[in-house]
Specification:
With about 325 residues, this protein is of the alpha+beta class. It is about 30% helix and about 25% strand. This is ATP-grasp domain-containing protein.
Length: about 325
Amino acid sequence: MFGILKKLKRSGVVGMNQRNADFILRYNKRSLYPLVDDKLRTKYLAMASGIAVPKLYGVIEIQRDVARLPEIVEGHEDFVIKPAHGSGGSGICVITRRLNNRYRQNNGDLLTEEDIAYHVSNILSGLYSLGGQPDQALIEYRVKFDPLFESVSYRGVPDIRTIVFRGIPVTSMVRLPTRMSDGKANLHQGAVGAGIDMMTGRTTHAIWQNYPIEQHPDTGVTIGGLEIPHWHKLLTLAAQCHELAGLGYLGVDVVLDRELGPLVLELNARPGLSIQIANRRGMSQLLEKISKLKEIPASAAERATLGQELFLKNQT
């Protein structure tokens, strides 16, 4: 661990204070925070912009509409319910299949229709929202993650977090659910973070609870060397979210569906910094180079390529 910290320091790790002062405050207008903190508004904007997202089945905004839930999920064997203003995966209910009149969650529990209605009511009351404000419940398509991740995740959907600065992808990691994280792709709750080579889309190093690991803690399968499909398309999708949100510095979470390919899950105006530990490399030098660029391509695909080129130069 100490060796990793020394390497991070040499490569220019960005700390919390520097991130806030030099990037978030400078490049992110505070007036835009409510947009990215609202998953429903973000989804509508993405859909209008042609950015791929999990299909929205319906929205429940007020208590009396909870009765509409069976109608919304009719014809869908599986689905996801999530709060519009939740964070860290709180309040997300993943239904993987139906069994008679019950619904099976991804953790194996069986829920009745009344259980699900109660959960939606809790979402509406603000139990899971930022600041405890009244919220909305989104019901959407359940991502069937790419088979690549089957042996390195536990009862959840891995996602790929990319930091995008001035529209250019800077660094990425894949977050792998574990038993400790209860199937959530959240590092603070116990998920694994694996760094990604930006040129190849191949996983490199991994951390769990801030310590380096080589195998997934639940499955025992080696994490490094996984080649993520659709890599350049995924980076292009992340770059597109710069225009979508209007933020100069943001985190973009993308999931890989086995049939639909990369889908944007959510945006983050204040992405964490653990991504540097997962990659065993600080972002400071890359961010400085990008901040000094006088011209940045208008095309998201060209910005994705530029991000890869800058990454490669930064390795030498």
